[in-house]
Amino acid sequence: MVIELSEDLERVLHARARILGVPADAYIREVLERELTGEARAAPAKLKPFKSSFGILAKYGPAPSAEEIDENRREMFKNFGEDY
Fold it and tell me: Which domain holds residue 19?
């Protein structure tokens, strides 16, 4: 079976499949199965879980250490409440 889609609809389809971490054809199959079996409100059962987002912020470099965070807090709040 061949289904023709507009470019916009195809772009949305691929984006949603990418978000779920599954191939577009698997996403289409799951949507059709849910719709045609009357389970439109049910959660997708056969889709793979989301891909881990571990490392998504790696491009920003290493996180500050606990000591650096504590030092920043001390510096930020060193004069807090002195006017009262």
Answer: 7-76
